[in-house]
Structures are given as C-alpha cells and as structure tokens.
C-alpha cells in the first residue's frame, strides 16, 4: 500500500498502560488517500467488531483492488485481533461456502424429507392396520354378541316357557293330582336346565375375567365317580340309555380341584346324554396311567364315550370355540349355548392336561383327557373323610335355626323347606336384626345361623364378624352357614375367611344343606 510498509496486521497486547489514541496502523494510507487505520481500539471494545474497507494497487499490475480489515475484541481474554483480506477472494470464498453449504443443506433437507415421508408412511400404515384390526375385532365382538344373544334368547326362553306353562297347567288342575305331579316334575326338570345354562354363563364370565383358579382338596376317586353316576343315572334310565362307569386306579386318594374335575365330567356327560338317542350307550372311565413319581404325582386318564350322533370334521375344528354348535338347538331340538366344550377346554388347560377327540357322524364321540394329580400319601389320608354315613345318622329334628334373609320369596322358600325337615325357624330381615336376635335370645337358644350375604343395613359378612366378636364364647362360636346366590370360589373362600363354617349356593339343595348342618352339629 502507498504510504509505507507498516500496513501489516498488528496485535495490540492488553498489558499496554492505555489504548486511548492507539490505532491499528499509524502510517498506512491506501491508494485513494484514505486512512482505514483510524479505528480506535476503544471503539472496537464498544462495538465488539469492526470491518474497514480500503484500496491498494496489485503488485503485478496497476489495477486497484479492494481489501477489508477485520478487528474483533475477545473480552474473556482481553485480546484484539485485526486481519486483512482481499475482497474478491473473500467474496469468492463466501460464494463458494454459500454454494457448498446450500448443496449440503439441500442434501440434508432431501434426506430429512425422505426420512419424514418414510416415517409418515409407516405411521399411517400402522394406524390403518390398527384401525383395520380394531374394526375386525369390533365386528367379531358384535358377531359373538349376536350369536350369544340369539342362543340365550332361545335357550333361556325354552325352559322358562316350560316353567311358566306347566305352572299354569298345575294351577288349572289342582284337583287332578296326577296331572299336577307331572307338571311339577316338568317344572323341576326345566328349572335344572335353566340352572345349567346359568352355570355355563357364570363359568364363561370367570374365564373371560381371568379369575378362574384352582382350589385343591383331598378326593377319593371312586367316591367322586360314584357320586357323578348318581347324578346322571335317573335321567339315563328315563331315556333308556345304557350307562357304564369304570374306575381302574392304583392310588385312589388324590389332591385335585374337585369342582373343576366334576365340571369336566358334568359337561361331557351332559353332551353325551343330549346327543345319544334312546337305547344308546354312554361310558365313563378313569384309569391311572403311571405310578406315583418322585414329585408325588401320577398320570390319570378320563374317558367319556357315546354312540350318539357324532360330529363332523368341519365342526371338530371349531368345537372348543365359544357359542359353536354342530347344529342349532332349533334344528337338533337339543338345548344348549355352545359353551360346554369351551369350558371343558379351558379347565383342561388350567389343570395342565391334554384333550383329544375321536368322533364320526352317526357313530358317536369319545373325549380323552389326560392329566396329572398329586397322590395322597399316608400322612395325608386323615384329611379325607367320608361324612355320608355320619350325616345319615344325625337327627336334626327340633333344632332351632336363625335365618337371615331379606328377600320375602327366599324367606318363604327356605322357611318351608327347613320346617318340612323338622327345624324350628326364626326370621331376620338383615344382618343387624340377626345379631340382635341372637344376643337377645342368649346362649343355647339357636343351634345354627343361616346367613344370606347381600342384605340391606348390614350384610352377611359384617354380621358374621360382629357375632364372632361377641363376649359370650357360646354365642360367638355358633355355627354359621352362608346360603347365598354368590356361588364363585372366592365367595366361598371369603365366607370362611370372615368366620363362617359352611357355604351353600342358591337355588337351595336341601341334601347339601342337610349334610352341611349335620357336619356342624
């Protein structure tokens, strides 16, 4: 540059006593006579950065070029740095950087757009698949609901129609004792059909809610099969079906869920009896397949076989699905909800067993279930006790019962059934009244308390707790039996947890109630 050679970059160290009046250069003048060095450092401090433009003559020719000086103050270090750069080179670099950055940014934006589009595509696809699945599930749920309501409407109304119809027949023919007797018998059988349907629905509710569980007790296999046969033999004889049962086991005493095993037999035998015509044959067999192993278990096999109408191959692929039936009850004239085999399949899975089926149309069906049960050893045998002979010898005539029941019809039914068996019965309309009557009567007056669960003012559970807290030990320890429509396993378990001594489900089975009271007397 014209005006001397002191035009280079200068660095001013902050150790100077003062920067006032100090310039970037003291004798630099550009080709046009400008003095770009006249930028005070204090101004740089104040503004943070300053860019000055000046002119100079190129070394190789007489062309005049522009140049820029840049000064910046770095406060953390108290340094001021000044640089010089030719403008055309600077602009070229700026343009190059701009184009390169634009190119880079373009690529980055393109990649980002592709990624966003990709994610949006899969998000939309996943949403569509989720909506489609939800629609399919909703349609399936609606179909199942429609099938369920259709079956329930027909299968519940059929026994209800018989109950109402034959009740009217009995009322209109009170003088004809034979006709009334026949009508009452049909009312009873229709009521049992209705109860079985309700039991299936309740069992289904347990399965759907995931609350179905196992409750183990000691069981005598021979006795369990004998009792099952006693349930079905009257109907089998009436239908003239040959009914054969066989027990072939080495270890007769086992630990299992008696109610679940009974349910298996009940559902399979009910189906066999429904679909086996008069003069047919049904077999119930249980066999022990292995000896007791080191874990204390043995393998058993349960078979139910009939020579009824059988099942098609197509139906066998769906027979364990809910509401599935080979033919509707309207066509086959056999009532049912299509829940029995679904419940059987669930119980078999619950006990860790397997089930297989052999069936042909017109030849009958055979269900084969294999499962393990714990064999009762000698130390456990005292837990298995047969009360039947003891109950038969127990005379409960004249025993006083305090019956806590809020429903008037249920009061009347229970009162009649109990007084017919020789009991003396006093009524209480809720748990609070029952507690007061028990306390006022004093020790030794009542022999039993039969307690409903769901009652106003004070429910049966609370009333039982209050009785157990009474100061008189004879009153506090009086036998209490729950007689309730709450028939699930946890209802039975809760009854015992609060201090009840027995549990009988409604509708009242007097034989079961008498056995329960006999065991407590």
Topology at a glance:
Elements: H1 41-47, E1 49-57, E2 64-74, E3 79-86, H2 87-172, H3 177-209, E4 217-220, H4 221-238, E5 242-248, E6 253-256, H5 258-274, E7 281-288, E8 297-306, H6 313-316, H7 329-332, H8 340-350, E9 354-360, E10 364-375, H9 388-393, E11 400-404, H10 408-420, E12 424-428, H11 431-441, E13 448-451, H12 460-468, H13 473-476, E14 480-484, H14 489-497, E15 502-505, H15 510-520
Parallel strand pairs: 5-7, 11-12, 11-13, 13-14, 14-15
Antiparallel strand pairs: 1-2, 2-3, 4-6, 6-10, 7-8, 8-10, 9-10
Helix pairs in contact: 2-3, 4-5, 5-8, 11-12
Question: Tags for this entry?
Answer:
521 residues; alpha/beta; Heat Shock Protein 90; Rossmann fold; 3 domains; 15 helices; 15 strands; 47% helix; disordered N terminus
């Amino acid at each position: 540059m014209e005006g001397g050679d002191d035009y280079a970059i200068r660095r001013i160290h902050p150790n100077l006593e003062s920067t006032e009046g100090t310039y970037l250069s003291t004798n630099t003048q550009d080709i046009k006579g400008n003095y770009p060095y006249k930028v005070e450092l204090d101004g740089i401090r104040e503004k943070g950065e300053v860019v000055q433009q000046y002119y100079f003559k190129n070394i190789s020719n007489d062309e005049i070029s522009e140049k820029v000086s840049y000064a910046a103050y770095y406060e953390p270090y108290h340094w001021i740095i000044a640089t010089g750069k030719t403008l055309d080179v600077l602009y070229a670099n700026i343009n190059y950087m701009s184009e390169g950055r634009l190119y880079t940014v373009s690529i980055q934006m393109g990649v980002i757009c592709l990624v966003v589009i990709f994610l949006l595509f899969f998000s939309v696809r996943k949403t569509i698949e989720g909506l489609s699945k939800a629609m399919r599930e909703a349609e399936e749920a609606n179909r199942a609901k429609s099938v369920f309501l259709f079956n329930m409407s027909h299968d519940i109304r059929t026994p209800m129609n018989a109950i109402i119809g034959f009740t009217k027949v009995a009322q209109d023919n009170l003088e004809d004792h034979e006709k009334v007797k026949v009508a009452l018998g049909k009312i009873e059988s229709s009521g049992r059909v209705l109860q079985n349907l309700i039991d299936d629905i309740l069992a289904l509710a347990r399965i759907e809610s995931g609350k179905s569980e196992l409750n183990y007790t000691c069981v005598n296999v021979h006795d369990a099969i004998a009792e099952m046969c006693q349930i079905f033999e009257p109907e089998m004889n009436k239908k003239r079906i040959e009914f054969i049962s066989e027990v072939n086991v080495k270890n007769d005493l086992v630990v299992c869920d008696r109610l679940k095993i009974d349910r298996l037999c009940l559902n399979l035998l009910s189906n066999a009896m429904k679909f086996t015509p008069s003069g047919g044959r049904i077999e119930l067999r249980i066999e022990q397949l292995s000896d007791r192993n080191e874990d204390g278990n043995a393998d058993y096999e349960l078979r139910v076989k009939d020579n009824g109408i059988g099942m098609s191959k197509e139906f066998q692929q769906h027979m364990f699905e809910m509401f599935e039936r080979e033919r509707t009850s309207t066509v086959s004239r056999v009532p049912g909800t299509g829940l029995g085999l679904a419940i059987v399949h669930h119980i078999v899975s619950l006990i860790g067993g397997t089930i297989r089926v052999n069936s042909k149309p017109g030849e009958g069906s055979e269900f084969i279930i294999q499962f393990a049960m714990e064999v009762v050893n000698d130390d456990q045998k005292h837990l298995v006790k047969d009360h039947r002979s003891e109950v038969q010898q127990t005379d409960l005539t004249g025993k006083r019962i305090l019956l806590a029941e809020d429903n008037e019809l249920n009061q009347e039914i229970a009162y009649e059934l109990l007084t017919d068996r020789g009991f003396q019965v006093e009524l209480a309309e809720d748990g609070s009244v029952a507690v007061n009557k028990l306390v006022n009567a004093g020790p030794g007056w009542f022999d039993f308390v039969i307690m409903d669960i769901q009652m106003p003012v004070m429910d049966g559970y609370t009333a039982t707790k209050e009785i157990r807290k009474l100061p008189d030990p004879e009153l506090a320890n009086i036998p209490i039996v729950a007689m309730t429509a709450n028939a699930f396993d946890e209802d039975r378990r809760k009854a015992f947890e609060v201090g009840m001594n027995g549990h009988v489900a409604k509708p009242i089975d007097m034989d079961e109630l008498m056995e329960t009271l006999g065991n407590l007397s």
